[in-house]
Design brief:
Low-confidence stretches of chain A: none
Largest sheet of chain B: 5 strands, mixed
Oligomer: heterodimer
Shape of chain A: elongated
Strand order of the largest sheet of chain B: 3-1-2-4-5
Number of strands of chain B: 5
Largest sheet of chain A: 5 strands, mixed
Helix content of chain A: 25-40%
Number of helices of chain A: 4
CATH architecture of chain B: 2-Layer Sandwich
Distance between the termini of chain A: 35 Å
Mean pLDDT of chain A: 95
Strand content of chain A: 25-35%
CATH topology of chain A: Tetrahydropterin Synthase, Chain A
Order of helices and strands of chain A: EHEHEHHEE
CATH class of chain B: Alpha Beta
Distance between the termini of chain B: 26 Å
Shape of chain B: elongated
Strand order of the largest sheet of chain A: 3-1-2-4-5
CATH superfamily of chain B: 6-pyruvoyl tetrahydropterin synthase/QueD
Largest interface: A-B, 24 and 25 residues
CATH superfamily of chain A: 6-pyruvoyl tetrahydropterin synthase/QueD
Mean pLDDT of chain B: 94
CATH architecture of chain A: 2-Layer Sandwich
Structural class of chain B: alpha+beta
Structural class of chain A: alpha+beta
Strand content of chain B: 25-35%
CATH topology of chain B: Tetrahydropterin Synthase, Chain A
Amino acid sequence: MTTPAPIAHLSRRYRFSASHRLYTDHLSFEENEAIFGKCANPNGHGHDYGLTVTVAGPVDRDTGFVMALDELDATVRREVLDAYDHRFLNVDVEDYFDLVPTGENIVMRIWDRLDAPLGHMLRRVIVDETRNNRFEYSGPNAEVR
Amino acid sequence: MANVTISRRFDFSSSHRYYRADWTEAENARVFGLCALPNGHGHNYTLEVAVAGDPDPDTGLVINLVDLKSAVGGVLVRFDHKHLNLDTPYFTDRIPTTENLATVLWELIVESLASLPAFLAGWRLTRIRLYETEDLFVEYYGEAA
């Protein structure tokens, strides 16, 4: 019997720049301002987002890889970066046509975009909105720890 | 138990090459790209070592950082300013990918920590995180499948 393959978690960090506005049509302008403050300003504002994607699996004996990096890069580019980078999320990205593009919602929508294309090897998504604001999501079935 | 995690960061620099002698040049180039170039290349690695346990009631320490530093330092001296393929004995049967390097370091650090006089204090190694670059890292928790 062969020795068990170690399970490693591989993370790669990407960047995209986008604008957004925290505002919902379900509330009045005054209510939006009370909840979202300056993030509700009519014309939106932008961030340089950091996106860290973690996949996990057995380390391949031949290559020493959990997943080929070019495959991971191409998937993240195709599924997320091409749609998000240099866009106004509320207006240009269908994920947010009826959803406020908060960091919480962005990290969950990115999970949904990546999980199946990455063969369900996805374990964690981290969105850094600024250097002080970070959002992490490990899928609907994960325990928070 | 094990309700506080302490983590320390270490730096080391090494060179490596991704190449399998049992594959053709073309196959190596296809799978490993630039990493297969004949003379290797190097990285500034950063390693974070996390240990968890209950703080000692007398000292307030989970582990004495001096012990952690000497145990991990004793391992890393075998890798720092070395060529991983040529100057270490660990990659004769596997490629020195970040995944494989992380699992090798885990085994050596576990061994090194077990030789500490304070090993019986109840803490355990819970995670290592190895950065190859700022945008690429591997986490290993000692799991296998």
